[in-house]
Amino acid sequence: MRVKSVATKRERDKAVVLDVIRRLGPLSRVDVYHLTHLRPGTISLLVRELLRENKVMEVGPSDNPRGRKQILLRLNPNWGFVVAVEFDPETVVAAVLNAGADIIHRCTERTHLGGGVDGLVKQLVACAKRVMREADVDPASLVATGAADPGLIDSRAGVTVLCSTIDFWKNVPLRNIFERDFGVPFLLESNTRARVVAERILGAGQRAENMIYLDYGTGIGMGIVSQGQVLRGRSECAGEFGHTHVGEGGPACRCGSFGCLEAMAGAPAIAARARAAVLEGSASQVLELAGGDPASISSSHVLAAACAGDKMCAAILGEAEKYLGLALANAVNLFNPAVIVVDRRLAPAGEQFLEQIARIVRRQALQHATDGLAFRFAELGEKAGVLGIALLVLDDLFEIPSLKLPKFLRDAAAGPGRGLARA
């Protein structure tokens, strides 16, 4: 993200008024005064400007029982639009959202990996343009774009560094590509961090100040919120949960190590175990769920069969539960969350899966860390990534800038001769 600055206090005050109305509206001008302590005359002037710019709108009188009715203000959600894209090795999701983070239109398609970096980049850009076209959004009203990426990223540079689940996805300058094609600012985030933001603000996290989100798909990730802040780490590797070591002599992982959680309990791992068991002659409902084709067995088939009482799939799922529970217990001791939100893609396994994970965590983690700890399935499903990107993009757009004085004033403040010496 880029740190914004403005040259005048008036510009900064205007940003403060807009952000307060966005976050807490509907508000009256009096409410804005009490929240910001700006002068009433300044607030009136800045609100008039924001109304002319169509960034805020009047939504009728307040319902206070006494005194003069105040006109309420709120953000105009159709002031501008954001295009958000999320992708992984299986699916690309693109959405147009308004300035209130409401999804206007969304489309989904299978990820095309056959064309390498160039092919996938073209698909992402094409999906973004397609969703704008289908939503009938004027390109002139687009204010930003963003992408949730399955790999390790450098969010400051807007570059994908590498991806363990898409081998060729390395050193991809997505910011440069999207800003060239769309002409508006672009934000790059990992899909796990995008999802934890969405689930915390709009979903099962219920705005918890301390939470963990278990991201489960072709890989395993963890979104960590501590004291209201998403943890990133020095090189933005915080939350690479799937590559924590959980088994000696375990199977090889795509990251190059052995015994990683992802290789032991990830979706591809449990699907591969079920396929191998069926091919060896084990009877199971999972084959019927996969249409009779062992090659088509997926993790969702295994979860559904286990939930229906299939013994073979229940044993495979039980093994995965053990590793996931142990790994989560370590995370609980490290980060002390109030809630653990588990990816909705694990919901087909049923509430008993969540209960078993909770039992393992409570047995293995410190009792003081697990007292009152809540376990929930995520609520937002396939929308989580694009919602999270939109929330992050909008926070960036509406960020209250720092006040940067003009150079002649900075030089004057530095004292005689010092500014000249710096020139």
Chart the SSEs and their pairings:
Elements: E1 5-6, H1 9-24, H2 29-36, H3 40-52, E2 56-61, E3 71-75, E4 81-87, E5 91-98, E6 103-110, H4 116-135, E7 142-149, E8 152-154, E9 159-162, H5 174-182, E10 186-190, H6 191-202, E11 211-216, E12 220-226, E13 229-230, H7 261-265, H8 267-279, H9 285-289, H10 299-307, H11 311-335, E14 339-342, H12 351-364, H13 367-370, E15 374-377, H14 384-397, E16 402-403, H15 407-414, H16 418-422
Parallel strand pairs: 1-16, 4-7, 7-10, 11-14, 14-15
Antiparallel strand pairs: 2-3, 4-5, 5-6, 8-9, 11-12, 12-13
Computed structural class: alpha/beta
> Reading side by side through the largest sheet, how are the strands ordered?
6-5-4-7-10
- The helix content is 40-55%
Uncertain residue ranges: 416-423
How many β-strand stretches?
A: 16
Number of helices: 16
Biggest sheet overview = 5 strands, mixed
Share in β-strands: 15-25%
Q: Terminal Cα separation, in Å?
A: 29 Å
- Provide the residue-averaged pLDDT: 90
Radius of gyration: 25 Å
Categorize the overall geometry. Answer: globular
Task: Write a short abstract of this structure.
It is built from 16 helices and 16 strands. The chain has helices at residues 9-24, 29-36, 40-52, 116-135, 174-182, 191-202, 261-265, 267-279, 285-289, 299-307, 311-335, 351-364, 367-370, 384-397, 407-414, 418-422; strands at residues 5-6, 56-61, 71-75, 81-87, 91-98, 103-110, 142-149, 152-154, 159-162, 186-190, 211-216, 220-226, 229-230, 339-342, 374-377, 402-403. A hairpin with a 4-residue loop joins strand 5 and strand 6 (103-110).
